[in-house]
Amino acid sequence: MNLPSRYLENCIHELSKLPGIGSKSASRIAFFLLKTPKANVDALIGAITQLKDNIRYCEECGGISDEAVCSVCSDVERDKTTLCVVEEPEDMLSIEKSGAFDGLYHVLGGVIAPLDGVGPEELSINKLVERCKSGIKEVIIATNPTIEGDATALYIASLLKPMNIKVMRIAHGLPVGGDLEFVDAPTLAKSITGRREM
Amino acid sequence: MNLPSRYLENCIHELSKLPGIGSKSASRIAFFLLKTPKANVDALIGAITQLKDNIRYCEECGGISDEAVCSVCSDVERDKTTLCVVEEPEDMLSIEKSGAFDGLYHVLGGVIAPLDGVGPEELSINKLVERCKSGIKEVIIATNPTIEGDATALYIASLLKPMNIKVMRIAHGLPVGGDLEFVDAPTLAKSITGRREM
Q: C-alpha angle A98/A102/A108, rounded to 5°?
């Protein structure tokens, strides 16, 4: 069907490129923007522009930051002997939200994926090894439980173990509130093999 | 939880004001925008800005248009004796998509809702009456089947019937592919009272 306006058509097309936004949601958002006061739309556009222009990556951990060094790395009260290695800056935020980790982070910027042309050099693995030379006692590898995430974890472990660093992997198993009946087989297998003494 | 960047926080806040976007989706979109090449983000911003700055409402029907008169109103092949009255421009697009209507439209710009301070004067009802004076034989009222939509339909019918115009209401009943077992009671009641001879 031809829309009566190419501006509307173009806007819906661009909005539907966003993750989780299909053509119906995009159309709904476009009509909402059309009815919203100009000031509110300008606020949205301003926020996106500022995000794109001003955000920086922390020189220490590679996480998202407004300053040269992020608020986590510059926090004097955090444990500076433990590093948590994550794939992306958003993973760092998820762990921060859990409140279960009090050390520093290291953002890899992805995982080793030879099929996509991503080798160890494309990630900040060399920098991780450098950081580990100064006072780091424990590294928790929190890459995702995927084939690439597991392979990257193994690769990093092989580099750090000879440096006398305790290399840990986050636990995989049943999610809290999960149900044995409905959980998938690989997760259940992980939760059996990774069992802990009570 | 405090995000490590106020730009990120502000962007998530603005995105979560969009319809159907909660804080999780907003966060996902913000991170997506962060990783997307600047040119793509500029294309999105440009599309929204153009939509906001350039879109017009058709002088005839009140629908969305790039020109003074929309493509439906200026189409010489459409039946100019039948008007379909809808609440919003997006309703017009939905009916166009169905392909079941070949006449012209009239967009009210809302429904009569005294509690929200919307009376008949706030809608384009006077203009509808004017349009009906020149050659309109049938008016199909396609406001939504809500209390306000039904009341608005009744009000419009009371104005147009004395003008010797055939005033119709779109049918309400079971949706195509629907299931008697799961349909709600008011819809089922409508489909019984609105039964047709086979």
A: 80
| Residues B166, B89 within the same domain | yes
Is there a domain that residue A59 lies in? no
- Mutual angle of helices B6-15 and B23-35, in 10-degree steps: 120
Does A71 contact B28 at a Cβ distance shorter than 8 Å?
Answer: no
B24 and B102 belong to one structural domain: no
A163 in the same domain as A83: yes
**Distance between CA A53 and CA A119 in Å, rounded?**
28
pTM score of the predicted model: 0.80
Three-class SS state of B72: coil
CB contact under 8 A, B48 and A66: no
Residue in A15, A34, A64 closest to B5 by CB: A64
List the structure tokens of A131.
Answer: 């950081």
Average pLDDT, chain A: 91
Given the cut 0.90, state whether the ipTM is greater than it.
no
Q: Which two tokens stand for residue B198?
A: 């086979």
Q: What are phi and psi of A187, to 5 degrees?
A: -65, -45
Q: What is the pLDDT along chain B (198 residues), one digit of tens a residue?
A: 567 889 999 999 999 999 999 989 999 999 999 989 999 999 999 999 999 999 889 999 999 998 899 999 999 999 999 999 999 999 998 898 888 999 999 999 999 998 989 999 999 999 999 999 988 999 999 999 999 999 999 999 999 999 999 999 999 888 888 888 888 888 888 888 888 888
Looking at the fold, whether A27 and A95 belong to one and the same domain comes out as: no
Q: Is B54's CB within 8 Å of A7's CB?
A: yes
Last residue of a domain, one of A19, A38, A54: A54
* Nearest Cα residue in chain A from B31: A90
CATH number at residue B151: 3.40.1360.10
Q: Which domain holds residue B149?
A: 78-170
User: Could you give the percent of chain A with pLDDT greater than 70?
Assistant: 99
Q: Domain total for chain B?
A: 2
**Token reading at B131:** 């349009």
> Are B70 and A4 inside 8 Å of each other by CB?
yes
